[in-house]
Amino acid sequence: MAINLQRLMALDFPERVFSYTERDTMLYALGVGLGRHLPDELDFVYERQLQALPTQATVIGWDDTWQEQTGMDVHQIVHGEQRVTLHRPLQAAGQVRAKLKVTQVFDKGPGRGAVVLAQTTLHDAVTGELIATLLSTVFARGDGGFGGPPGRGPMPHGVPDRSPDGTVVLATRPEQALLYRLSGDRNPLHVDADFAQAAGFERPILHGLCTYGMACASVVRWACAGQARRLTHFEARFTAPVYPGDTLVTSLWRDAGVVSFRTRVAERDRVVLDHGQALLAAD
Questions:
Q1: Which residues are part of the catalytic machinery?
Q2: How far is CA 261 from CA 5, 9, 235, in A?
């Protein structure tokens, strides 16, 4: 079934309610590598003064089944970019109303794929307050040439052309994907060797959003003195896979309230996150 642009833009995904607990928040933090540097990271893994990492917003209402309703070839879909905007600090536990909609679709042409932008809003289920807006860019590699408008997603952030102001090195663990998937994404690509090889990978790869969360943790440590509430926006483009056990090297540049970043895998000297941008609130 090919993409039908009119049908796709008319899709009305129902609003859903999700609850998350302090246990979920601590599990997510452990899944993205927090808790290794104690006592500095204790507030992310201990309920006494528990903080939620802003990128946890990507898993609170996790549901990727919407892609099956779009007409896209789900076997050819890859996550292109992710943007998270926090309208208030994410609480360590709560209940949210999540609403997803497809906002734009671009046709790159036959054999070149399609770009689909999907926006999710998270509201506090009790007060109605807007908590976060998530924008995902999905690259549907097998769906170009359906007759849609040309174009691309939002312009990527430009990383400064100078030596980085700082670097954070964090090794992923061999069991990292097994731990991260407990926060919601059970795609067998990240655990099943046969599935991964059929998809063209030598072995299971780490979730892109796990690498994304690890980069966010690096920014919070380096630029926010461990205070996650200071981070109000976080975005990056996924450029290459990470394998569990790889070492992530995140280069960071700071210009006033903007932190730019780029993450590469040390073992292959390959950039895996690019065009990274984090916006910080004042102290």
A1: 185, 190
A2: 35, 33, 10
